[in-house]
Amino acid sequence: xxxxxxxxxxxxxxxxxxxxxxxxGLWWLALMILALYSLSKWLNSRAFIKKNVLAxxxxxxxxVCTLAILTRIFILExxxxxSGSMEDAIFTSDDILVSKLNYGxxxxxSPFEIPWINLWFYHNKETTNPDSIYWKYRRLxxxxxxxxxxxxxxxxxxxxxxxxxxxxMGLPGETIRINDSDVxxxxxxxxxxxxxxxxxxxxLKNNIVFKRIADSLNINYGIKASANLDVADCYLNMHExxxxxxxxxxxxxxxxxLNYGAYPQQPKxxxxxxxxxPITVPARGASLLLTEMNYMLYKAVLAEEGxxxxxxxxxxxxNGKPATxxxxxxxxxxxxxxxxxxSIDSRFWGFVSERAIEGRVIFSFFxxxxxxxxxxxxxx
Length: 380
What we know:
Layout: H1 2-23, H2 27-44, H3 47-51, H4 53-74, E1 76-80, E2 95-99, H5 117-123, E3 151-155, E4 163-170, E5 175-179, E6 182-185, E7 188-189, E8 197-204, H6 207-216, E9 221-224, E10 231-237, H7 238-247, E11 250-255, E12 275-280, E13 287-289, H8 292-304, E14 309-312, E15 315-318, E16 321-322, E17 325-327, E18 332-336, H9 346-349, E19 352-353, E20 357-368, E21 374-379
Antiparallel strand pairs: 1-2, 2-20, 3-4, 3-20, 4-18, 5-6, 5-12, 6-7, 8-10, 8-11, 9-10, 13-17, 14-15, 15-16, 18-19, 20-21
Helix pairs in contact: 1-2
């Protein structure tokens, strides 16, 4: 009697959990759990497997490997931060846990994107092309849409193999503008995260005090002697600027402008990393009027979508046919690194396609703080 009640309670709990997943938009996860549970029950009921030790071990190993592969594709995966472009939020070589559930998992488009199974295909890549697309882009339902300031893992192009980590600043359909390093979304100035840092020359009143404070904050700097006040060359976030100003060891801060050429790298568009835009982030279903300016701004996006856009004799052609407008197939995002002077991001190469996004960074673990201290976990 007690066992029956316990079984009923467990069954009710599982049913409630699966209904909760379905209500949250994760119906596919509920089906997956049901399928795995049914398969497990079926295997355990086979007399041959129960009596044969080798068969039991094989089924156990196969189950563990399958569960690991499915977890990496559909739920969670660990990545290593490839660069310092997101300092001071996360640092080079930090391990980060990326959730596939937040935005929904992107299904593999080739066997080379399936963990562990891809080893066999790489071993036999003479007969298979790692860059080939075998299946169309598909993404299952997730818990939420991408939001401003989400730290995301993605590939610059959907065909790339290298993963990048940046902060999402612009959503589909929004107009982005950068004016003297300040970011504006639809003409509203954005409050930047406290980890964003910029390049400054700091005129010093007291070298000794500045060095002590900078060393305690683990700020990298170089000091140049001058006839009047010595100058420190360093990258600072807003928290560090406030601390240094309050201590009173500096005379002034001189922001160093980032006047490098920026996307779309066209002579007629004189944008820089600090003065960029305005530009509208492409949205799925939005119609783009084909003009000479839009040709320069969005040609790379159309190429990513497989549209061959050409401008000849004042006429636009898409895949060889005259056209006056183009409808975007996918959503795109504008991303920036927190380490603004040392981040190669949307200011250089444009937008990130939804097809290239792997997931949202939840936290880093086994990481180091800016001071070099070991941190087990750090939420983002």
